[in-house]
Design brief:
The chain is of the alpha/beta class and about 425 residues long. The chain contains 15 helices and nine strands. The relative contact order is 0.08. The longest helix is centred in the first third of the chain and has 47 residues. The protein has three domains: about 150 residues, Arc Repressor Mutant, subunit A (Orthogonal Bundle); about 70 residues, no CATH class; about 180 residues, Rossmann fold (3-Layer(aba) Sandwich). A seven-stranded mixed beta sheet has the order 5-4-3-6-7-9-8, sandwiched between helices. A two-stranded antiparallel ribbon has the order 1-2. It binds S-adenosylmethionine (SAM). The site of S-adenosylmethionine has 18 residues, from helix 8 and helix 11.
């Protein structure tokens, strides 16, 4: 049976309806039309009071993607998917390596000759690379052989995390992606955390996390990349910060295990003054934490390896996007090291993706979860997990961990809560 799709005309009507919701909002709030201009704010606002605008945007993206794919048809669709995407990534790697965004003036335009002089790359090669990206509104050419910023390229200058993200993709992720099919053949159906495409590519027996942690530049890029990934409307903690009933925990100490730069702890500490947090991670992560002065007394950092017994007795152990980095056997080890410190009634809260059935979510959300699943496979020989996978994993780690609830704000990380009974 063929996949059911609306007609082109019905898609166009839905696109028009949702575009109208967005346009009406912009007009009513005295905001300019969305554009690619490097100046001004091109983001639609987020937050509960703008839910109808974001819903319209998410629907619009899904319908527009369907319309584009139908219009491309099978032959051009396959070419577009493989050929264009392949070279988009190649071009992005070049602009990262030569730090090209910072060589283009944020206002006005920069002659290609100037970028050529600064990078040592010929004008011809630069234009090949930059014009590929201009197809995606990363830079534009206001006059022949002159380059100017768009909102997307300017973001790479203004937000260091965006550039870290690009670097992480270009340096740590793209080469293993090219090796994925080979790795699947070489390693077979392994569950070892050091038998991923990443290991084949970098010829290392260290798992991806160990390797990245022991390379300071990679570790810095990874930290920035995680922060960037959490911005925007998907793969963010915002939903569970708002919706999960953290207030019911009362006065509690929360250990944020593998907490990175503490982004989840800081977001929660900001909203819930009864909660105190200890962020645990590897030494390198602690170096990059920026503490808002008003939260210094409620959020602290401690070096702790989560493959060793947990030293802190607390009410709650929080693991944000930690276990998805690990195959089941290692994830179980991490949990068992927590259980050793847990008292009756203590909780483990996982902030993770819950993988759904194909087609059961809007395209925008599903696309990012599918990419995360591929990312886990490629880099860590791991995976995103379904609710059934999560429950089974925790039971396998310790049968005294009882599943309590899952809170799943659409498109955001879910909170999965387990309580420990002695
Ligand atoms: C995907 S990141 C998530 C970070 C953080 N929870 C967040 O969401 O921003 C996984 C984290 O696990 C940390 N990690 C990896 N191996 C670890 C270990 N053996 N002990 C402690 N932390 C570790 C990494 O340094 C990284 O910060």
């Amino acid at each position: 049976m063929a996949e059911k799709v609306p007609s082109l005309k019905d898609l166009a009507i839905s696109i028009s309806e949702n575009a109208t919701i967005i346009e009406d909002f912009l007009v009513a709030n005295d905001r300019p039309h969305l554009s690619f201009a490097a100046t001004g704010d091109q983001m639609l606002p987020m937050g509960p009071e703008f839910e109808h605008v974001q819903d319209a945007r998410i629907t619009l993206i899904g319908k527009a993607k369907l319309l584009l794919d139908l219009a491309l048809g099978p032959i051009d669709g396959v070419k577009n998917l493989s050929f264009s995407n392949l070279h988009d990534l190649g071009a992005l790697s070049v602009i990262y390596r030569y730090n090209i965004p910072s060589l283009v003036a944020l206002e006005g335009e920069t002659p290609i000759g100037e970028i050529s002089k600064a990078t040592g790359l010929s004008e011809r090669r630069l234009l090949t690379v930059l014009r590929q990206l201009m197809l995606h509104h990363v830079f534009y050419e206001p006059r022949e052989n002159c380059v100017a910023h768009t909102a997307r390229s300017a973001l790479l200058v203004r937000d260091p995390n965006a550039m870290d993200w690009l670097g992480h993709i270009a340096v740590e992720c793209l080469p293993p992606t090219a090796k994925l099919s080979e790795a699947l053949e070489v390693f077979g159906s392994t569950d070892k955390d050091n038998e991923a495409a990443f290991n084949l590519t970098f010829n290392t027996k260290e798992n991806c996390i160990q390797y990245i942690s022991s390379h300071p530049l990679s570790a810095k890029r990874f930290g920035g990349a995680l922060a960037f990934l959490g911005d925007g409307d998907a793969v963010s903690y915002e939903g569970i910060v708002q919706i999960y009933p953290w207030g019911q925990l009362g006065v509690s100490k929360i250990v944020d295990v593998g907490g990175g730069r503490g982004r989840l702890s800081f977001a929660l500490a900001e909203k819930y003054s009864d909660l105190t947090f200890v962020v645990q991670d590897q030494p390198e992560m602690g170096k990059h934490i920026e503490y808002p002065p008003h939260l210094m007394d409620r959020v602290s950092f401690e070096v702790h390896d989560f493959f060793t017994p947990q030293p802190i007795v607390a009410e709650v152990y929080l693991l944000g996007a930690v276990l998805h980095d690990w195959p089941d056997n290692k994830a179980i080890e991490i949990i068992q090291n927590l259980v050793a410190a847990m008292k009756d009634g203590a909780r483990i809260i996982l902030a993770e993706n819950v993988k759904m059935q194909s087609g059961s979510q809007p395209y925008f959300f599903e696309a990012i979860i599918r990419a995360m699943d591929m990312q886990m496979l490629t880099m860590f020989n791991s995976q995103e997990r379904t609710l059934a996978d999560w429950k089974a994993l925790m039971q396998k780690a310790d049968h005294r961990l009882e599943f309590c609830r899952v809170v799943s704000p659409p498109g955001h990380f879910s909170a999965l809560e387990f309580v420990f009974h002695t």
